[in-house]
Amino acid sequence: MKKDFDFWWRLLRPHTLTASLVPVLVGSMYAFSCTRTLHFGLFLAMLLASCAIQVATNLFNEYYDYVRGLDTKDSVGIGGTIVHDGASPQFVLGLALGFYGFAALLGIYICANSSWYLLLIGAFCMLVGYLYTGGPFPISSSPFGEVFAGGFLGTGVICIAFYIQTGLLNWHVVAVSLPVAVLIGLILTGNNIRDRVGDAANGRHTLVILLGHKWSVQMLSILFAFCYIWVAGLIFFGGHSVWLLASYFSIPTARQAVEKFRPEGQQPKQMMPAMILVSKTNTTFGLGLALGLLVETFLPML
User: Fold this and answer.
1) Alpha-carbon gap, residue 6 to 51, rounded angstroms
2) For the residues 249-271, what does the mean pLDDT come to?
3) Does residue 300 lie in a domain region?
């Protein structure tokens, strides 16, 4: 097994980590807009811990998809280092646990500088990350994968990032987090649309399998629209400035994703560009939202 740069890139999937980076940025920038202060040590620790948990979750997915026979040499996707590169399953599992250990150490630092109640919350988040593909009833094989992914990686992380900076939590934070949570869930929807036929053959019961291709793409389109309408609501009814409209720069990418997914009968490889566009939509939207929250700190009247 040759462990070159490409191997580590496919194994750790750093290009997917915007799903972890964006919520921390949004929660932290909103905290800064409320308090005009930022504890950089806590911000960095939260950023690294969130990324470590996602990497570990990806590695658990790699390991358990192999153990259950879902990954084969014919599988299409961004992972598959066990079946394509000859990585040892034990090595992948051990690395996942190592990243969890690193996240736990960062969690102790965060708790020592904020609240020890977060230790229980962090432990529960890590358990969900494991159960996402591990255990007898993997969340990723159920219709609730999008809800768990968006709820924990989106709303959960944004609320924690906000709380450790301010010591407070309110419904305004939850409202700001909702479109980010939806878009993170839609990354999973994109993956599941691509893998729908294979997943159904392997006994999975994802939401996409239950809805079918046409209605899954329609759901994707509707939820994209919801995110942009929600931002408008934050401006008109939530007291935020028009700077949040920076998130609208992601609209063309969202439209392209829907259009590329729309034709039925495509092979998984043909849907890879559409899946990537869904992820890019989350990144562009989230960075725009975080930037808008930052700018409105100094120019709140616009």
Assistant:
1) 19
2) 95
3) no
